[in-house]
Design goal:
Distance between the termini of chain A: 49 Å
Largest sheet of chain A: 11 strands, mixed
Radius of gyration of chain A: 24 Å
CATH architecture of the largest domain in chain A: 2-Layer Sandwich
CATH class of the largest domain in chain A: Alpha Beta
Oligomer: homodimer
Structural class of chain A: alpha/beta
CATH superfamily of the largest domain in chain A: Dihydrodipicolinate Reductase, domain 2
Shape of chain A: elongated
Number of helices of chain A: 15
Helix content of chain A: 25-40%
Chain lengths: 439, 439
Amino acid sequence: MKPIQVGLIGLGTVGAGTFNVLQRNQAEIRGRAGRGIEIAMVAARNAERAKAYQAIVGDAVPCTGDAQQLVNNPAIDIVVELIGGIEPARTLVLQAIANGKHVVTANKALLALHGSEIFAAAREKGVTVAFEAAVAGGIPIIKALREGLTANRIEWIAGIINGTTNFILSEMRGKGLDFATVLKEAQRLGYAEADPTFDIEGVDAAHKLTLMSAIAFGVPVQFDKAHVEGISSLQATDIKYAEQLGYRIKLLGITRRRDNGIELRVHPTLIPASRLIANVEGAMNAVVVQADAVGTTLYYGKGAGAEPTASAVVADLVDVTRLATADPDHRVPHLAFQPDAISNTPVLGMDEVQTAFYLRLVVADQPGVLSRITTILAESDISIDAVLQRESADGERQTDLIILTHDTVEGRMNNALAKMQALSTVLAPIVKLRKEELA
Amino acid sequence: MKPIQVGLIGLGTVGAGTFNVLQRNQAEIRGRAGRGIEIAMVAARNAERAKAYQAIVGDAVPCTGDAQQLVNNPAIDIVVELIGGIEPARTLVLQAIANGKHVVTANKALLALHGSEIFAAAREKGVTVAFEAAVAGGIPIIKALREGLTANRIEWIAGIINGTTNFILSEMRGKGLDFATVLKEAQRLGYAEADPTFDIEGVDAAHKLTLMSAIAFGVPVQFDKAHVEGISSLQATDIKYAEQLGYRIKLLGITRRRDNGIELRVHPTLIPASRLIANVEGAMNAVVVQADAVGTTLYYGKGAGAEPTASAVVADLVDVTRLATADPDHRVPHLAFQPDAISNTPVLGMDEVQTAFYLRLVVADQPGVLSRITTILAESDISIDAVLQRESADGERQTDLIILTHDTVEGRMNNALAKMQALSTVLAPIVKLRKEELA
């Protein structure tokens, strides 16, 4: 059978990785797919860049500075979009779909924001938009959720899905350094970008979480409902206290099904140090899935980088190649559930989210302080799991008070916090972090 | 569309789990598969058992004591075989295939021994034999290897794929107990069977490893070539020494591609305590896959039990349901590679396997002993990674000498061991364990 023809938009890190993997492993890939997979054309953002690409891919593969030429090329069966960002990616993807081409993309931002539009267009044209590479790089987590766990009612997902922040948190804990210092080091080593905002503020993780939440629970992608909180204000002190209490702090993306809706949130989270995921260090990713039949499963690997991401892109190419001839109704649905089975379960606001809390209060070292604070918690019906009060050194007038609570609704906790903050014996803004047992 | 009709052979632990999961999650499963999945008939091994099953499944589903009736029932689309063992499972599966039915099975022994025959028959009839449940219970590792990592040249797989033995090893290490004591406890708790031979001697793990090796490397299933070694002769002393050196001992199934062939071996293995897989405790399973593009990935979850295994059975049912109408040439091949891409790379004998070693020698406490032993190793071109010599107590005439080596070929190590064993200062049989860095 004639090799399937692929058009590659973008030959940056992941694009070049994809090109290399397809070249190097072409025999193995053909042996699995039953058909060759060939790059027929490469598109760059302009003519100059196209010339640079031409030098990389050799003369046999035409490179163009006009991606329109690629998405309109009738010889191309599958368009691989690896330029990232919203535009022109969105327009090119929609145009490829309109031309009846399958699409493979690593673009989490595009799908988290415009997934509904894109998947609807693809459904109408009977083509597939595959996006394994959009979440957790080379870990086949989309496949696991969408195909591997189809027997299950999924209860929750918690993932370390941003390597930059996990690297930073690992270094902060391992070396006792503060955020700003480690960020600079991460930038020097290439683990963080020059403008690291999307990573360190949790936006990248929230894009990925939004996609996982949709396929786990059968709801539309709705990034605008996600709670997004990064690690830039996390203090080394709290990492140290957490450790003393038996916890590690990780930036987790958490989505959980509750009776009244779905939680969708990214924030620094205390988790027991004994959990496997607490021991995922450096730039690695891991996703824990809790589901009713299978129980807990965990998926671990490299969440970024040229070839790990290319591994996911090529897996999608093989899937699409295999199924290009299958009746569209018999393919795996984009969002795991058939369109008529997508539910409108609401995403809960943070006030309604249930979780446990870590609180750090700087309090005056005088009698009655702990009593007043615990009274506020008791009156709010929030129960305490553990208290750690640092012994104050001689002559010190203030001390740190750490409280771990049991699960409560966040709105209630915020009301109690406002009352505590108003106490004259509470001397600084209270640090509030969320805590999950993940069991 | 009419629900797909499933015949279930066996309603033991996994069969009942499958029945329950299909009932409980039928709405979610239909929402994903786009079509209902219905148990149309259940078969037991005899009429009496069929009567007991009838009470469980209710009157709507006929139960028969004659499985022939089920595999010959023209109303049934998919046969699920959950009775285990070789016969009558083999005959029933082949008959179902001959009747043009798809088969889903959790039977690792059957496929490891008779997979070539069964897959060939299925290919000829254009039906699918799905076996996610045969390896590592609910962890979707077959899907990950066969579809998630298609871009890669897989280099090696190392897995904790038997929960019984991992439970026993965890307890031996955690409580410092010996094998026999912990085995009794495991039997009392239901983690080990009354006749635990298949588990503790590594046979069950070798069945699963054989299947993973075939789909990773594109070779036929060949259980007869596997090296199978269990944990029944493992001593608490060696677990303790390993820990002092920074290692844990796990029963691993390891398959690795070498230039001259494929390693296929199950044995107790020292691995660095810092590896994620070293921290997989109790009856849990985990599989590490090393591949050229994606790097290291790990998959973790429950490897046995009613609903975790049912999770895999039902995932296969959904896959088969979805693709029942697709051209057989476009389905995922049974052994990951297309039949004409299956290679005849040989499985290496243990003498040719490369690994590092842990040796424990009981030696006379006198001058020159260490020198004689290290000379034998040096003459055999085996280099030493670490030595630990226990200080002998006053009056003791013997001491333990622990040696960690670098990688070598096992045949060479065995020759060296024979020379050491012949020394008059070596007072007991030498303990030899294999060691892998898994990096």
